[in-house]
Amino acid sequence: MSRSVLVTGGNRGIGRAIAEAFVASGDQVAITYRSGEPPAGVLAVKCDVTDPAAVEAAFAEVEAAHGPVEVLVANAGITADTLVLRMSDDDWSRVIDTNLTGSFRVAKRAAKGMLRLRRGRIVLISSVVGLLGSAGQVNYAASKAGLVGMARSLARELGSRGITTNVVAPGFVETEMTAVLPEEKKAEYKAQIPLQRYATPEEVAATVHWLASEGAAYVTGAVIPVDGGLGMGH
Asked: What is the dihedral of CA 93, 17, 163, 5, to 10 degrees?
């Protein structure tokens, strides 16, 4: 059966690959985005997840077109990297509000429909940085670590209604964000990864797609790393 799928931040990088994976399997896919060109075959809705009214309007548009959201992938996120002594309150607040509070807003809104359906899949996109920490990313690491506690609480709260909540924690992925890193920095990072390479967005998407499948119906509250072994043990 074709399901109603919503991917936040689905116009590029990991989010785009996730949206395309669900389109390829015949689902009705909607994405939220703030700028850029959305992928083909999706319902693209402009939405800033830091704005509660925009989130409500986006869900209303998706539900009118595709019905209640059955699979939510909370992927929208930003960075504002700097060392802690230089990090402003605004640097902190913007990252927390987008990555953590934004995910809370969309998960809460999606849960409404899922509870009525008595089924659903929620996948939160975290990061290996949320488990390992990273100098210069106190705000980002805190936001991504917070998703783990959120997911596990949602798993306990919603599980009795057939709703699973899981976390995917990518490591370094070949995206626009990593493409701009200096070559020596890329080599330094790769040296720390047992598989000695970055992930492709499609490899992250495949894990998310599996978590939304029947094969993962008994998986909830899990944190699944897609990091080439970088964060193992955490």
From this structure: 100
Annotated binding site: 9-12, 75, 140-144
Query: Domain count of the chain?
Result: 1
Domain residues for 148? 4-224
β-pairing, 71-74 with 4-8? parallel
Q: Is residue 234 part of a domain?
A: no
Of the candidates 33, 140, 189, 218, the residue annotated as catalytic is: 140
| Residue list, annotated binding site for NADP(+) | 9-12, 75, 140-144
Query: What's the predicted TM-score (pTM) here?
Result: 0.96
What tokens does 192 get? 């720390």
Is 229 a domain residue?
Answer: no
Residue among 140, 137, 123, 127 nearest 172 (CA): 127
Does a structural domain hold residue 233?
no
Is 198 a catalytic site residue? no
Tell me if 131 is assigned to some domain: yes
pLDDT digits 0-9 by tens, 164-212: 999 999 999 998 777 777 888 888 889 999 999 999 999 999 999 999 9
Q: Tell me how far apart the alpha carbons of residues 63 and 47 are, in angstroms, rounded to a whole number.
A: 15
Cβ(47)–Cβ(57) below 8 Å: yes
For residue 41, give the CATH number of its domain. Answer: 3.40.50.720
